[in-house]
TrEMBL record:
Transmembrane segments: none
Pfam family, one: ZER1-like_2nd
Cellular component GO terms, alphabetical: Cul2-RING ubiquitin ligase complex
Stretches assigned to coiled coil: none
InterPro entries tied to this protein: ARM-like (IPR011989), ARM-type_fold (IPR016024), ZER1-like_C (IPR055142), Zyg-11_UBL_adapter (IPR051341)
Protein name: Protein zer-1 homolog-like C-terminal domain-containing protein
Domain Protein zer-1 homolog-like C-terminal per the UniProt entry, residue ranges: 46-236
């Protein structure tokens, strides 16, 4: 590439530059290298600024090639890293938004699991006004409610690894919705209109001995109940009251 003659401060910087102007194949290869760097716990050796560049260029790649499944997998495998997601200076709003967009476009179960995990982790780290902007996008709320219902049904009708994967995705979906419905009445209304309340009570009944899931669901319902009309609907439903 034209970048071959350029000098770089750290070895990974060359790949960061390549992703910014890459062909699809180059981007996939570079992202695979980043993932290996994370997996081998070498990421902590890079400067914080270099890590931020890695994240930004990964997000660039995800936005540029939204329908390339392998590239999307490599992007989210790279970013779905505790060290990365705790760094100050990471653009949590952009990370969350790109992950949500990827979730809408890709039907791959692996991409869905990673993106919802990332959304659930970074959503609480965003500024309140940024979270409200994302939560106001009806597409995201509808999709997350769909994920709730889909993974609830998969868990009911599956066993083994598939059931475990569905439970994993369900937990992170509930965490994301708990954060996105907080102090956001418009989001709560969309959640209710998409039958999110009904699905939530189905989850409460099925996981009555699972404290972690119960806490998340009750957190969502508490947020929704702050909208007076939705609280009345729940109070007037005998089955809901019995479940509570």
């Amino acid at each position: 590439t034209p970048l071959d003659g350029h000098s770089y401060v750290v070895p990974v910087e060359r790949d960061v530059q390549i992703i910014n102007c890459a062909t699809r194949t180059q981007a996939v290869m570079a992202l695979n290298d980043y993932w290996n760097t994370d997996r081998m716990k070498r990421i902590s050796r890079l400067s914080i600024s270099a890590v931020r560049k890695c994240v930004d260029r990964c997000l660039d790649a995800a936005e540029t090639y939204p329908e390339t499944t392998q590239l999307q997998k490599n992007v989210w495998l790279t970013i779905c890293n505790d060290y990365l997601l705790q760094l100050s200076g990471i653009n949590f709003y952009r990370t969350c938004k790109v992950a949500l967009e990827s979730m809408l476009i890709n039907t791959d179960a692996g991409v869905s699991r990673m993106t919802i995990a990332i959304v659930s982790i970074v959503a609480p780290k965003m500024r309140s006004q940024d979270a409200r902007v994302l939560a106001s996008d009806v597409r995201y709320v509808k999709h997350l409610v769909h994920l709730m219902e889909q993974n609830l049904n998969h868990f009911r009708n599956s066993n083994g690894v598939r059931a475990e994967n569905s439970l994993y995705t369900l937990k992170f979906t509930l965490s994301a919705l708990w954060n996105l419905t907080d102090d956001c009445p418009a989001t709560c209304v969309v959640f209710a209109h998409e039958n999110g309340i009904g699905v939530s009570f189905d989850i409460l009944r099925l996981f009555e001995n699972h404290n972690n899931i119960q806490t998340k669901v009750l957190g969502i319902l508490n947020n929704v109940a702050e909208v007076y009309e939705q609280k009345l609907l729940m109070l007037q439903n005998a089955e809901y009251l019995e479940a509570l």
